[in-house]
Amino acid sequence: MTCSLLGASAQSAFQVNHGPYLQEVTQDGATVVFTTSQKAFSWVELKPHDAPEAEAVRHYNSKDGLKEAWNTFSSVRVEQLKPGTRYDYRIISKEMRSFQPYKVVYGDSIATEWHTFSTIEPRKQGGSIFITSDMHSNPRKLEKLLSLADYKTCDAFFYVGDMMNYIDNPEAPFTSFIDTSVKLFASSIPFEVVRGNHETRGNLARTYSSYFPKRDGKIYGSYLLGDVMIVMLDSGEDKAENHWVYAGLTDYDAYRTEQAEWLKSVVGSKEYKKAKYRIILSHFPMVMGQEWKDEKAWYGWEDAIRKFLPILNKANVDLLISGHTHRYHYHECGADGNAFPVLEQGAVCAARLDLQDGNIRLKVIDTEGKVLKDIVIRAGK
Ligand SMILES: [Fe+2]
Prior knowledge:
Purple Acid Phosphatase, chain A, domain 2; alpha+beta; 381 residues; 7 helices; Immunoglobulin-like; binds fe (ii) ion; single chain
């Protein structure tokens, strides 16, 4: 992250130390997320691409009449943007050295460089999508896979769970995969996350959603990229709620039931039906290999299949991409009660989808650059 100091000592340690990264970019808005090294008052300046700086408008995170301040983690939503339009933004932040009832002492001010992003173009056809999972806090593996998949030619990025081993310190999401994403693309193109079971573990797991803010506050959701509909399921934990490892703190059965109701409404929606391509992302595969069935230990995974698969089987799904099992395996349509193909992409792999003219080209590569799969699936079949 490069920042310039505004009227302050160049030796100052005050800086934007994580991000900015984009979340929930839509046709008319985007969320900018970043952290500062000290408590601060921060905002986002936004202008049409290549417009003069004088046209930049300030956007704050305001709540109940107060602008957010005295914080290090910031999430600022910019709205009322035009569809399919390029914008430039930067972060301005003023260090707060003291915040008393009748006296605020500001320190250094910083401005990041300008970044450019585009809102979603509703008429966009197809696109190129990068998908991986199960990096387990190994950002070097992620960087290698992004490179091998030619990430610079991708329009969208999805992480399908277990990008971290657990969350036991606030830096874990950054050091595991966010910082690497920012270094390569995430200040200009958002990544979307699907939670894996490992991200439900650790004493800070309950802060997970704050790193990936959504207006509806949910972790599961759908994402419409032109004529591509992507549904992101949150499959929860793999074992039974009463397993000793969860210490009585999980409530996934009810959560998956709630989510199944939501899934029914999504696949019945006008947007879903109208989409040319329908891709489902889920950390757990929606089929279970015999070796796992024989273990009889995966109640949570079975519960996810029991609740989600019947809905998906009637929803003209083109492809489901999952992780979790750490093996590469491709389940043909109909192999195990699935009405659509299911990819388990493995712990050292990434999938790249190129969608064009009703064709979904699926390419799976591993960290050695080996191509494990390269097929074309006809959308809507
Ligand atoms: Fe997993």
